[in-house]
Amino acid sequence: MRVYGVIGWKNSGKTSLMERLVAEITGRGFTVSTVKHVHHDVDLDQPGKDSHRHRAAGASEVVLASAHRFALMREHRGPEPDLTEVLARMAPVDLILVEGYKRDAHAKIEVFRQEAGHDLIQPGDGLVRAVATDMDLGALPVPVLDLNNTGQIADFILAEVGLAV
């Protein structure tokens, strides 16, 4: 599967860019899935619900299934799974966009806004293939893309993963 990351510091605009990229790339006829890395505990379930009771009893996986979607919850009861393990469980698509996992070994675009209050990640990470920003950063060793030009960023990613048309 083709995997491409969108990284940056908190409040840099990663999620907004991800949302726009998914719409843009699927609008071009490609199938896209996403992975969002979070640093806090996530639980889609509620205490007292049947599925929560299944997990509390020791089920490794619980699926919530309805007419429009299903959600698979997997208890790993150990260290956080790495990106490779997460990707291995996903159905095949043309492209998986990954938000976060900034230290993992996959190609990425860095979203940079000075207001986020951090330095660029790109100088220390050779897998950052471009920086998307809304400001003048001067010369960088990678392309600088207009954060507000979703089409340009999608073109870049699709070319990088070999899906350019």
Write up what this structure looks like.
- This is Molybdopterin-guanine dinucleotide biosynthesis protein B.
- The protein is of the alpha/beta class and 165 residues long.
- It has four helices and eight strands; from the N terminus they run βαβαββαββββα.
- The protein has helices spanning 14-27, 50-56, 83-88, 150-160, and strands at residues 3-7, 32-36, 61-65, 70-74, 95-99, 108-112, 128-133, 144-146.
- The strands form two sheets. A six-stranded parallel beta sheet has the order 2-5-1-6-7-8, with helices on one face.
- α1 (14-27) packs across α4 (150-160).
- The chain is globular, with a radius of gyration of 18 Å.
- The chain starts with a strand and ends in a 5-residue tail after the last helix.
- The model has no long low-confidence stretch (mean pLDDT 90).
Summarize the structure.
The chain is α/β, with parallel strands linked by helices.
Any chance you could write out the topology, listing elements then pairs?
Elements: E1 3-7, H1 14-27, E2 32-36, H2 50-56, E3 61-65, E4 70-74, H3 83-88, E5 95-99, E6 108-112, E7 128-133, E8 144-146, H4 150-160
Parallel strand pairs: 1-5, 1-6, 2-5, 6-7, 7-8
Antiparallel strand pairs: 3-4
Helix pairs in contact: 1-4
Domain Molybdopterin-guanine dinucleotide biosynthesis protein B (MobB): 4-134
Protein name: Molybdopterin-guanine dinucleotide biosynthesis protein B
Pfam families: MobB
